[in-house]
C-alpha cells in the first residue's frame, strides 16, 4: 500500500496523514481489488489493507448484512466489511477519518473529464500503461479479446521480455487450442499449464492465507491454480498482467433485455418469482428455469442490482434476506457506486457498477491477493483510472452495440490477428465445477460444510442445501445460481475456518 503526501499515479491507494492533524485521508481508486479497512479499538485507531489483521483486534463478529451481501451479490459493498465494527473506505472516494472519534466521511473522487476519445488515443493510453511493465512480467493469456489485445499491444511495443501464460482444463479444452492459435501471431513466448487435481488440496487449505477478504466467483479455483503454476514456471517474475475489466468498460451485457423485463406487469413478475420457488425450478437447469430465474430477480431487486450484481435468485429458497438488510444493501450499492458513475445515463451506471463491484471486487480479486502474498505485483490495465477515463470518453457507438460488446477492442485486435480469431462467440473462462464437485477433495469439503456449517447455519436453509450438495456429488448438474451459491458458502466457510481469531 502506498503512503504518501502527494497523489501517486495509477491504481495505487494513497493514504495521507499530515503531522499535527487528527485526520487521515484515504484515496481509493475506483476499480482496485485492494481494500482499505479501519476500526477503533482499545482507545486507538487501526487501519489496514488486510481485513484479517483487524480481525485479530477486538472481538470479531460477523456482520449479518455483509454475509447476506456475499450470498446474494458475491461481494460486500462499502462501507461494510464481513466483520461488525470494521468499515471499508469506499472505492472511487476520498475517505476522511477523524482519529479521535473514528468517524469517517466519504467524498466522491470523480474521473477527470476528457474530450471525446477514439480507438487510436485509447491504444496509446494502453501502450503507456503496458510499457511500464517490468522486464520478465507474465501476461495471463486466455486467447480472448481482452488478453489478446494486451498481447497485441505488447508485441507492437516489442516487449519480447513479457511472456504469455495460458491455463488449460485439459486436452479437450477448445479455448486452450484457440489461445495457442492466437499466440502464434505475436512475437512473445507462449507457455501453457494444465489443471492438476493434486493442486486442489493445496488451494483449499490456503484460502484463508491467500485471500484478505472473501468474495464469490467459482473461477477463483482456476485463477488460483494458474497463479501457483505460473510462479513455479517463472519464480522471478515481478508482475502478472491480467485483462480483467474490459467487459465492464466496453459493454452493457443484457441491459436492454433486463429493461424489457421491468416493463412487464408486477403481478406477472411476482407470479413467476413464486413459481420458481414453489415448483423447485432452481434445482435443475433448463431453459424455463433460466427465464423464470430472471423474472424472479426482476421481482425482488432494482434493475441494476438484478442485471449486474445478483449472483442468484435464491433469496427465500436457500437463504432469507431480511427486508432491513435488503434495504441497507441497496442503499449502499446506490450511494457508493451507482450514484458515483461518470454520468446519470443508465448505461454508464451499469458499466460503473460492473467495474467496481464485479470486475474489481470479484474477478480481479481472484488473482490479486494470491500474487501479493507471494511477493508478485498484479496489474490490471483495463482497471487503471487513466484507461477508464478514456473508455468513458469514447462515443458509445465506437465502444459497443447491444449485440456486440467490446467493439472498439475487437477492431483494434483485428489489426493484428485474423478476424475469425476475434469475431466469434464468447465462451468464457468457465471451470468445470459440476465435475469437480463429484471428485475429491472438493466433494468431501463441500459435504462437510453442508453437514457442519457452524456460524453460517443462522443464514442458510440447511436441509435444502444438503440435498443440493448430495445431488451435486452424484453428478447431477446444478443451475447457475445454485452453483454460484454452493461455491460462495464453501469459500466463506473455509476462509473463516482458517482464521485463528474467528470462533465459529
UniProtKB/TrEMBL annotation:
Pfam families: Asn_synthase (PF00733). Keywords: Amino-acid biosynthesis, Asparagine biosynthesis. It comes from the Bacteria. Residues 141-480 form the Asparagine synthetase domain. GO terms for molecular function: asparagine synthase (glutamine-hydrolyzing) activity. It is an enzyme of class 6 (ligase). Pathway: Amino-acid biosynthesis; L-asparagine biosynthesis; L-asparagine from L-aspartate (L-Gln route): step 1/1. InterPro entries: Asn_synthase (IPR001962), ASN_synthetase/amidase (IPR051786), Rossmann-like_a/b/a_fold (IPR014729). It catalyses: L-aspartate + L-glutamine + ATP + H2O = L-asparagine + L-glutamate + AMP + diphosphate + H(+). Its EC number is 6.3.5.4. GO terms for biological process: asparagine biosynthetic process. The keyword Hydrolase does not apply. Signal peptide: none annotated. Transmembrane segments: none annotated. This is asparagine synthase (glutamine-hydrolyzing).
Amino acid at each position: 500500500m502506498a503512503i504518501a503526501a502527494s497523489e501517486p499515479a495509477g491504481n495505487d491507494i494513497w493514504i495521507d496523514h499530515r503531522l499535527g492533524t487528527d485526520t487521515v485521508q484515504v484515496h481509493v481508486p475506483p476499480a482496485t481489488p485492494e481494500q482499505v479497512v479501519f476500526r477503533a479499538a482499545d482507545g486507538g485507531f487501526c487501519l489496514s489493507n488486510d481485513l484479517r489483521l483487524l480481525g485479530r483486534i477486538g472481538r470479531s463478529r460477523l456482520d449479518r448484512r455483509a454475509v447476506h451481501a456475499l450470498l446474494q451479490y458475491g461481494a460486500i459493498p462499502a462501507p461494510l466489511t464481513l466483520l461488525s465494527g470494521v468499515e471499508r473506505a469506499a472505492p472511487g472516494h476520498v475517505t476522511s477519518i477523524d482519529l479521535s472519534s473514528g468517524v469517517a466521511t466519504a467524498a466522491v473522487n470523480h474521473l477527470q473529464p476528457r474530450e471525446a476519445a477514439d480507438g487510436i488515443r485509447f491504444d496509446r493510453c494502453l501502450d503507456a500503461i503496458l510499457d511500464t511493465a517490468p522486464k520478465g512480467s507474465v501476461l495471463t493469456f486466455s486467447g480472448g479479446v481482452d488478453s489478446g489485445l494486451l498481447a497485441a499491444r505488447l508485441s507492437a511495443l516489442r516487449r519480447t521480455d513479457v511472456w504469455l501464460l495460458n491455463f488449460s482444463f485439459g486436452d479437450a479444452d477448445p479455448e486452450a487450442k484457440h489461445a495457442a492459435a492466437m499466440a502464434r501471431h505475436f512475437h512473445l513466448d507462449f507457455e501453457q499449464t494444465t489443471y492438476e487435481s493434486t493442486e486442489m488440496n493445496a488451494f483449499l487449505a490456503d484460502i484463508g492465507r491467500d485471500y484478505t477478504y472473501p468474495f464469490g466467483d467459482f473461477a477463483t479455483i482456476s485463477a488460483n491454480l494458474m497463479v501457483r503454476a505460473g510462479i513455479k514456471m517463472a519464480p522471478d517474475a515481478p508482475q502478472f498482467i491480467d485483462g480483467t475489466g474490459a467487459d465492464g468498460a466496453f459493454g452493457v451485457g443484457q441491459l436492454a433485455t433486463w429493461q424489457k423485463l421491468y416493463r412487464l406487469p408486477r403481478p406477472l413478475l411476482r407470479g413467476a418469482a413464486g413459481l420458481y420457488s414453489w415448483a423447485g425450478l432452481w434445482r435443475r437447469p433448463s431453459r424455463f428455469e433460466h427465464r423464470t430465474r430472471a423474472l424472479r430477480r426482476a421481482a425482488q431487486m432494482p434493475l441494476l442490482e438484478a442485471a449486474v450484481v445478483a449472483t442468484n435468485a435464491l433469496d427465500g429458497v436457500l437463504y432469507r434476506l431480511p427486508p432491513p438488510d435488503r434495504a441497507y444493501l441497496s442503499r449502499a450499492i446506490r450511494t457508493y457506486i451507482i450514484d458515483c458513475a461518470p454520468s446519470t445515463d443508465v448505461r454508464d451506471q451499469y458499466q460503473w457498477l460492473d467495474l467496481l463491484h464485479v470486475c474489481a471486487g470479484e474477478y480481479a480479486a481472484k488473482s490479486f491477493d494470491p500474487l501479493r502474498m507471494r511477493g508478485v505485483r498484479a496489474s490490471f490495465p483495463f482497471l487503471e483510472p487513466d484507461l477508464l477515463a478514456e473508455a468513458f470518453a469514447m462515443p458509445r457507438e465506437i465502444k459497443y452495440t447491444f449485440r456486440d460488446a467490446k467493439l472498439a477492442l475487437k477492431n483494434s485486435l483485428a489489426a493484428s490477428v485474423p478476424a475469425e480469431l476475434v469475431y466469434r462467440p464468447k465462451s468464457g473462462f468457465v471451470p468445470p465445477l459440476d465435475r469437480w464437485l463429484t471428485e475429491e477433495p472438493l466433494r468431501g469439503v463441500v459435504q462437510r460444510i453442508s453437514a457442519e456449517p457452524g456460524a453460517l447455519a443462522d443464514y442458510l436453509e440447511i436441509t435444502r442445501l444438503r440435498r443440493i450438495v448430495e445431488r451435486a456429488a452424484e453428478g447431477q448438474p446444478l443451475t447457475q445460481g445454485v452453483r454460484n451459491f454452493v461455491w460462495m458458502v464453501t469459500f466463506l466457510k473455509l476462509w473463516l475456518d482458517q482464521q485463528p481469531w474467528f470462533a465459529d
